[in-house]
Amino acid sequence: MNEEPIYFDFASTTPVNEEVYKAMSPYFLNYYGNASSSTHKQGEIASKAIEEARNQVSRLVNCKENEVFFTSGSTESIKLAMSQVFYNSLDTGTHIITSTAEHKAVLDTCKDLEKIGAQVTYLDVDENGKIDVDLLENSIGSDTILVALMHVNNETGVITDIRDIGAICKKKNVLFFTDATQSYGKLPLNFQEENIDLLCFNAHKIYGPKGIGGLLVNTTAKTKSGVIVKGLIESVNLGTQNVHGIVGLGKSSELAKSELHVNYDKIQKLNRYLTQELYQLELGTVNGFSASRSPYILNIQLANQDAESFILKHKNTVSVSMGSACNSRLLQQSHVLKSMGLTKEESESSIRISFGSPTSQSHLDILINALKNENS
Questions:
Q1: Each residue of 37-75: pLDDT tens digit?
Q2: Domain presence at residue 222
Q3: Which residues are identified as catalytic?
């Protein structure tokens, strides 16, 4: 029987951790109560499980338990947060600031809001995928209601200086929303200290189940007209809750907290090893090399070869991607790499390697050998 290819697409999704699976299992068969049913024990058990998950999330990112809202994932959280802020700020402004390198979910939401009156500034990024923070501050006007910038870019791993940006937004009385899908449970996050008003995350990026995520909403966050944002989210975050999914998210958050520093150090060493081999063997270069980057993602511009051809030729050996899982089926240039100034040819020779807990140096050696074979 053929062995499965080595998986290098953990930024797309991760396998469910066995401890997470065990924690979820009883809520499929035994504890099947509706968390909103307060008149019987089954509902009480479900409700307590959700509160425990809120506690597990809050301990990971230092937020209050009542700041945690559960959604189906980051895309829903993005649309919910941005649309609610926009609709409830029409009397004070319609200006939103984001960047050209954001996740498609943010860019699509901005385009939808533009159709109904939003004015959106798309900040350019430099060759390393970084925005100009001074330009951001100068772009904020009296009608600016929201700044939306991701923490870690999902294609390149480039880290945005969210603490500094949060401080600017607070000074300017503008709400700050960050997509932390690629940093939640992987990099240190402190919701209370980094001046973040809204933050989204997913379970399936940290060995939890698919179809469940969350939105953190600062209890003190207000629109310019004085409307408390938490109340806006509460008004639409209704319905029967996904108890087993929420339990899985909570457990994966708990495990991520306990393993965060050990995992980070391990992945950082693997990232450095692969990067050194790439340059020493002249197999490729790293896009966004000079920027501060998450070690979990490495975007490589291959030397003298087409990424799609490499992926198809070695699909039985290694599983890699050409960028965001949300766009991988679209035959078009990565908007992130294009925004960084890469040509179409350079983008089409770039692959994304994303690391996970199972990744080992021997796995990387298999990938390196595949790259060497292409160049031989």
A1: 878 899 899 999 999 999 999 999 999 999 999 999 999
A2: yes
A3: 326
Residues 173-210 have pLDDT tens digits of 999 999 999 999 999 999 999 999 999 999 999 999 99
First to last CA, the chain: 29
Asked if 103 and 118 sit in the same domain, the reply is yes
Going by their DSSP bridges, the two strands 175-179 and 297-302 should be labelled as unpaired
Q: For position 214, which CATH number holds? A: 3.40.640.10
Per-residue H/E/C for 130-190? CCCHHHHHHHCCCCEEEEECCCECCCCCEECCHHHHHHHHHHCCCEEEEECCCCCCCCCCC
198/175 Cα distance (integer angstroms): 8
Asked if residue 1 belongs to a domain, the reply is no
Pair 269, 247 in one domain: no
pLDDT digits (tens, 9 = 90+) for 142-161: 999 999 999 999 999 999 99
Domain co-membership, 44 together with 64: yes
361 and 249 both lie in a single domain:
no
